[in-house]
Amino acid sequence: VLQTILRESQHTYDKLNAYHLFVLVLYDGGETAEAYRTLFEVLLQLGESIPKKLSPTETNKMYKTTANMLTGLTEESLLEMKMMDRTSQFRLKFYNSIAVVANMPRSDMVPFFACRMVQLTLDSQTICKYSLIGLVQYAAIGCGHNNLEVIQEACRIGKLAVAALKKFDSYTDIIPRLFFIYYALVASYLEPVHACAANLLKGFECGIACGDTSSAFFNAVHHIRISVIAGTPLPILLKKTEYLLEVIKNHGNTIGKAHLLLHRDTILTLMGKGYDYHSAVQDDPMEAYDPKKPSAPLYQYHKSIRAFWLGHCERGHYFFEKLTVPGLVDDVVNWRMREHRKFFSLYHGINTFGIIKPSSDQRLKDTPINILEGLKISAAVSRWNFHNKACLLAAEIYSYKGNHQEAKVNFAAAITSARSSNFIHEQGLACERAGFHYKKIGQLAEAYGFFNQAKQCYAKWGSQLKVDSVTRQLESIQIKA
């Protein structure tokens, strides 16, 4: 039916809704390149001039220009804007879609699309509900920055956009998309990640209810991702993931299914199921991934997390390094990977101590220090979500350098902070790492106590893998004693 409408309609505007539905079908079916090409061509027909490629310098310049335009923007000034004309609304609607689709085949172009949506709104001083998605997407890019002031301003813009929803009488249809961008990529600097996960689940339910299944499943995927980060008990997460996979199967969403399958396998690994502790590096179906494909970072992300918790330092380092983002502080091109890295960079830093040797090059030795600087920036924005991580990595650095007093203080702070933020898995990790520290300096009674606390935390998390690992440490201390 859609093909017939697109073929027989004479005017571009008669085809726009059909084009939008057609792109959703392509995207849900995993045909991201074709979906991107279609959206690109529609925007050209709507009078937009879109470059096929932007250099990092051009991208950063456009972002800074847009940032200057947003200076002084308030909720009141947004609410006072008049409604945008129909043609401009269609432009923003298709920019909104191409910004989502581009995350797989052309993530380098997402900053351009987000900035263009913001500029169309501010240049005309008119607004529509898709303007809010543009503002939130712009905020997500800013939250992937390395600069504290840029992150704080991005958070302000994102929060402002969500607050401005009340301007619109009918906005339910944009809630699913707005929620998955805001609560997956922005709000982790503003709210506890547990609250972000809960709102992503609401976004999924809203998407299913209003028929926006593409955004619904993005919410579902990020709900599971953020829940893992929050330390939600793994058995509960596994049941949720299985449920969401069943729902996705009934809707034929290829991309959502692929993401959730990876999360399910990671959860099973953390639980101690599905992967043998000693042979997990063999017969792994993920070995066949093509590193040139846009999805490669997704596989590398899961590989690195699994390797870290399995204790495979060399393997973990290989994949963590694959995900390391080059570039200067003011670079926004790699915004997406930086946003993801802020949560697992702690694991990268700790993992590095498992492979450092006296003969290691300075770059490797500096890795934990550089990561700690990034965690301090994140903690300055959100103490709830990042303070425990900064304290734990600081403790590891002090331990490595032989400053036992500072190590002791920071291990205690990391444990207390993780407990306060309800990060049971990272409370367990901090106790475990403290146990290794005290074991190294010969204080076996203290080491035993911390390993025992770690075992209790990991049991609450539902990770038999880590319970078994810590149990071996407890047994080794008893033998020595």
Question: What distinguishing features does this structure have?
Answer:
single chain; two-stranded parallel sheet; mainly alpha; 1% strand; 74% helix; 481 residues; 23 helices
Describe the overall structure:
The protein is an all-alpha fold and 481 residues long. The chain contains 23 helices and 2 strands. Strands 1-2 form a two-stranded parallel ribbon. The longest helix is centred in the last third of the chain and has 20 residues, at 362-381.
Overview in brief:
74% of the residues lie in helices and 1% in strands. The chain is mainly α and 481 residues long.
> How many helix segments?
23
Query: What is the total tally of β strands?
Result: 2
Distance between the termini: 76 Å
Provide the succession of SSEs.
HHHHHEHHEHHHHHHHHHHHHHHHH
Percentage of residues in strands:
under 5%
- Unreliable stretches (pLDDT < 50, length at least 5) are 275-292
Rg for CA atoms: 24 Å
Structural class: mainly alpha
Strand order, biggest sheet?
Answer: 1-2
Mean pLDDT comes to 87
Sheet bearing the most strands, described?
2 strands, parallel
Helix content, binned percent: over 70%
Shape: elongated
